[in-house]
Amino acid sequence: MAQENLTVVVHAPGDLRLENRPVPEPEPHEVLLQMHSVGICGSDVHYWQYGRIGDFVVRKPMVVGHEAAGRVVKVGSAVKHLSVGDRVAIEPGVPRETDEYFKSGRYNLSPTIFFCATPPDDGNLCRYYKHSANFCYKLPDNVTFEEGALIEPLSVGIHACRRAGVTLGSIVLICGAGPIGLVSLLVAKAMGASQVIVTDLSPERLTMAKQLGADVQLTVKKGDAPEQLAKSVHDLLGAQPHMTIECTGAESSIQTAIYATRSGGVVVLVGLGSAMATIPLVNAAVREVDIRGVFRYCNTWPMAIAMLASGKVNVKPLVTHRFPLEQALAAFETTRQGVGIKVMLKCDQSDLNP
């Protein structure tokens, strides 16, 4: 095995470096992976640009990357279900203890959870990376490494749609047509939503939403009144949505989400904006509109793999740019500029295929 382990590391705001680090040795319950495809997330760019997201602050050099798939090259002594050569998708959140959240199946809420590329935990944008074997999921032969890496953002969409209660015949509003809005669209349609309307500032992104199955697209302009936008949603659909999945974090968009959702419906907040927001809470309260949060995901990888393997969901169009690992800085700059949808880094020099 080549001992060169090229790794992408954030040192401080604006300081992203390519470094060579030692190849790690897996513990008994871990596997060593040769990374293949790693997507760049908005959070990776945010840590690079600002050195923090909310209370998560980069205080020491941190490896970025958490949307990933690779191949098993070494197996810990206690691992039974994986073998060398297996292609796997990586769930980046691994609980550290068997607390009440773990026991109730909501391990994503455990305060001590390990999570790739969230300070102080290192991510997996590198050549070789070790991870808990229980959170590495074998990919079927007809699911590519890139699809495996895209299970991470797809999982956010699955968790958001579960929290929203999307089911057969649901009418769904999705605010924002970035990667998370688009995966939420894909999942909502796969779960049986009859109509999905997607809003965004960018006509290009709405074109992609249409290609991925959005029934209606609504272009939003800065300064549009939320109540007016809610009326436009109703007029375009001929009905109010049962649920709204808010993927922007923008205060005005959260307001629109509440006004637009029918009485007794659900608003799910996925996008993260400012810590405090002014929203029409009384409007939501008197109409029994439930407001629910989303923090990452839990128990989504098996469902996501089944959706991809069966062809019920196609995430392939989301990948618009590919870079070899050596060009990680250019890849991050592309993502920062908001060009395309998903930028994928290829970490295996001998296999640059999807």
Automatic annotation (TrEMBL):
Chief site of localization: other
UniProt cross-references to Pfam families, sorted A to Z: ADH_N, ADH_zinc_N
Keywords: Cell projection, Cilium, Flagellum, Metal-binding, NAD, Oxidoreductase, Zinc
A GO molecular function held by the record: zinc ion binding
Co-factor(s): Zn(2+)
Name of protein: Sorbitol dehydrogenase
Domain Enoyl reductase (ER): from-to ranges: 11-345
InterPro entries given in the database record: ADH-like_C, ADH-like_N, ADH_Zn_CS, ER, GroES-like_sf, NAD(P)-bd_dom_sf, SDH-like
Organism: Stegastes partitus (bicolor damselfish)
SMART domains, per database record: PKS_ER
Ranges annotated as spanning the membrane: none
Subcellular location as annotated: Cell projection, Cilium, Flagellum
Annotated gene: sord
GO terms (BP aspect): sorbitol catabolic process
GO cellular component: motile cilium
Family membership: Belongs to the zinc-containing alcohol dehydrogenase family.
